[in-house]
Design goal:
The structure is a homodimer of 484-residue chains.
Chain A (H helix, E strand, L loop, with lengths): L13 H11 L3 E3 L6 E3 L1 H20 L3 E2 L5 E3 H4 L3 H7 L4 E6 L2 E9 L4 H11 L8 E10 L13 E11 L2 H21 L6 E4 L11 E8 L5 E11 L1 H5 L3 E3 L5 E3 L1 E8 L1 H10 L16 E5 L4 H20 L4 E3 L7 H11 L3 E5 L1 H5 L2 E6 L6 E4 L3 H26 L1 E2 L4 H8 L7 E6 L3 H11 L2 E6 L21 E6 L3
Parallel strand pairs in A: 3-7, 15-16, 15-17, 20-21
Antiparallel strand pairs in A: 1-2, 4-6, 5-6, 7-8, 8-14, 9-10, 9-22, 10-11, 11-14, 12-13, 17-18, 18-19, 21-23, 22-23
């Protein structure tokens, strides 16, 4: 744990750096089950803080949590044709239970639309029961051949929202409201700027009318799809016969949405802010926002600095700051600094005898810059300001990096140039004719896909007039990138 | 939802009453997957409140949350002989993944000791890594032939704590500390009194040195095992070779514990406090602690009572009370009262024009008694006191009921009489020789089992001298009951 072994630098091998950070910061570990990961306490704490924030936002917007079975009868998946086709290669199948072969195999949920709609059919009778706004925090399983910690694992943790509405319009509003909610969470909590917009048909959830997504740009200039929100129209309602009596006495199928974000976001957090010293955690999602390290030589100094570290930790906690005093003995201060930098703790306070004599502590910011002595009087207020400033500055830096790696009004030549080679990437904005042929050709030749047809606030001042690939008239602006 | 159909009375059929309450209060529902339930939002909210309280208690005592894979390689279970024997008939087995038959089947976790110990073997090197205190909130699967909502389902939600220690003594202290923590949660939050104590060998977790349990007495006089805590000794450490370097340079296997409570507790909550009008929810676990119902005839009265209900709800929320204004139109106040009684909301405030004119509201307690007008001034403070009083009085009533249905110093004749017939039950304290033969005979003839060898604070002033069954010398006092 305390060996001061340097990480693989990002510039040398980003992917190895990413794995190194996760292992060395003890965020997660490989498990003996192929494709499944173990989320260790330091990683899980980030997930808990994410959950708390998101759950509050879901509840504020009227959603309630529920829990549906892990298992789905096999024939349910076949009820929605696109659904079974999309997931068939990824399913884990339970064939035996209680010592016997099952009459019908059970699927371990890859997502819960089918089991949920079978229940909605029972619960929804009239327009008075609508909208029905449900969320579930759960584990899901999608068999993966090539896995990466947090980004793509056979089992992962997520939330899946499922809502039913009386009209198409309400479902559309919900899907878009959730997209904005996700964006707000990612920007305000993760300090990770995202583009939002609609997916093309080839990239949308097969069962959806429209899929919306949040896309972030990682430090290696590849895009990460960090959350999706689907307007499902009446597809599942029809497959599971979920009808309701309308206010004027008619009968209609409900209109529905589903949306989700997962532990994949932790991967996004690492690849957005991390540096060659390890994880950099935005203060709002940090297990410990301030870590105190006592510095001493004599027993007397040890007693005084420990006492001060504990007292200050208590005071900071009372002020709502997640503070931790690292009082391990037999470990030098430098080794502790190294560890807490690896783990991404936003602020460090060094407390030595000379600091105490001056009634101050030396503050170091994980995001860089000179150390600074802070008076102990009014410390909590000052650190609160520091943490807020760091939260903002991490976002600003990530935004600046994204914009520096985005290009607008791109031509075919620019797209080819930007995507060339393993190091190529970034967000490339350009005109798009809407043809799946162009989309497929671009993907084949550059590995780039349309990440989104951007929402209004992300569009270029003037929409490009021609498709950057085939030069036919453009129907929309699109953003291409190589994606995780 | 609003049909005012009466519940089956408890006295007529307790089991049917129980199912009725769950369905009518919309706590849970049967699912299309055999043995699995759906936890509906009103039931899940109780679970969330339970989780919050317990999670805080676990963290205060130094535990951290983590997440381990859902799947366990089949050969892991065989590493601990008693473990595989205990769980074999209850396993769900994944044989196919990603469209192919697996080389080795995967077990859906019935509990996570094996997968967790395989990781601990990697993480623990030295005494400095101990104690390691981990908890996991997760779903687990145990195939059940006869299921009951919340009490026994094939899939259920729980927390499972897993800790590793340097000494036998520390592991024992942890197992007992958690037992006390569970008791505190059940008594202070669920208002459900429990006996604590040790299990006999026939009732303990097969892999444990010692199993401790919390046992509550339901209104039908049957016992519910509401939580267990196991001292696992070195059994799993040896099976998975989890060793550590001791402080004096030696090598030893870790000593470990595991402990869990589950959604079963929601069943206990219902069967402890419910009455013939439905659920009675202790305030600390109630989704809505206070429900406001406006009463009006004219449009003017409607506007005034709605405005007041909303304003008061805001004020109560600011004071930390979970308050809800039921502003549904087209539903009479009486129908709303009926519903909220079914759902167990602790306090109801009725707001009519006359109440408003008097600057007051009419309060009704779910636990019974006369309605009472309360001045709106100082309402939040008054309701806070009411809620605390109800929390206490529910506990007191449950404790009085349990004690009225407990008998100490029982003879064989008394045990037989108390357990006779379907209606028989209660806690029967008596001397026990410690022989599995007596235990088995008693179970066969009365259906009663030893729930616990009670902890000191629950023991009778003098330990009975003879076994109530065989009349040999008693080695301990035991508590018998018929159990869920």
């Amino acid at each position: 744990m305390s060996e001061e072994k340097k990480l693989t630098p990002r510039s040398k091998d980003f992917s190895e750096w990413y794995n190194d950070v996760i292992m060395r910061a003890e965020l997660a570990d490989y498990s003996p089950v192929r494709g499944c990961m173990v989320i260790r306490p330091r990683g899980y704490r980030i997930w808990e803080l994410m959950q708390q924030a998101l759950d509050g936002m879901f509840k504020e917007t009227g959603h309630e949590n529920a829990y549906f079975p892990l298992f789905i009868p096999q024939h349910f998946l076949a009820k929605e044709a696109d659904h079974v086709e999309g997931f068939a290669p990824q399913l884990a199948v339970v064939t035996h239970g209680g010592g016997k072969e099952l009459e019908e195999p059970l699927i371990v949920r890859p997502t819960s639309e089918t089991i949920i709609y079978s229940m909605l059919a029972k619960w929804i009778q009239s327009w008075r029961d609508l909208p029905l706004l449900i969320n579930q925090w759960a584990n899901v399983v999608r068999w993966e051949l090539r896995t990466r910690l947090f980004l793509r694992t056979t089992e992962f943790l997520w939330q899946e929202g499922h809502t039913a509405h009386a009209t198409d319009q309400e479902a559309e509003q919900e899907a878009q409201m959730i997209l904005r909610l996700y964006r707000r969470f990612m920007e305000e909590w993760m300090a990770m700027p995202v583009l939002t917009g609609r997916k093309t048909d080839s990239e949308r959830f097969a069962d959806a009318l429209r899929t919306y997504a949040c896309e972030a740009l990682m430090q290696d200039n590849r895009a990460l799809q960090a959350g999706t929100s689907h307007n499902l129209g009446q597809n599942f309602a029809k497959a599971f016969d979920v009808t309701f009596q309308t206010a004027d006495g008619g009968l209609d199928h409900v209109w529905s949405t589903s949306w989700g974000v997962s532990t994949r976001m932790i991967g996004g957090l690492i690849m957005t802010h991390g540096d060659d010293a390890g994880m950099v955690c935005p203060p709002r999602l940090a297990q410990w926002q301030v870590v105190l390290v006592p510095i001493y030589k004599t027993d007397e100094e040890r007693a005084a600095t420990f006492e001060a570290a504990q007292r200050i930790t208590r005071e900071l906690k009372q002020a709502g700051i997640r503070a931790y005093a690292d009082l391990r003995e037999g470990l030098k201060p430098g080794a502790k600094y190294f560890e807490w930098e690896m783990r991404g703790a936003p602020l460090r306070l060094e407390l030595g005898p000379r600091d105490l004599a001056n009634n101050s502590a030396m503050m170091a910011r994980r995001s860089g810059g000179k150390k600074e002595p802070l008076p102990l009087d009014g410390l909590a207020a000052r650190l609160t300001v520091e943490l807020e400033a760091m939260q903002r500055s991490l976002f600003d830096a990530a935004l600046a990096r994204r914009e520096a790696n985005s290009i607008r009004g791109a031509t075919k030549a620019v797209l080819l140039e930007k995507m060339a080679g393993d190091g190529g990437g970034g967000f490339v904005y350009g005109g798009y004719c809407g043809s799946p042929t162009c989309e497929a050709e671009i993907k084949q030749q550059t590995k780039a896909t349309v990440r989104v047809l951007p929402d209004e606030e992300f569009r270029s001042p003037t929409t490009p007039e021609r498709c950057l690939w085939c030069d036919s008239p453009s129907v929309t602006e699109a953003v291409w990138a190589k994606a995780y």
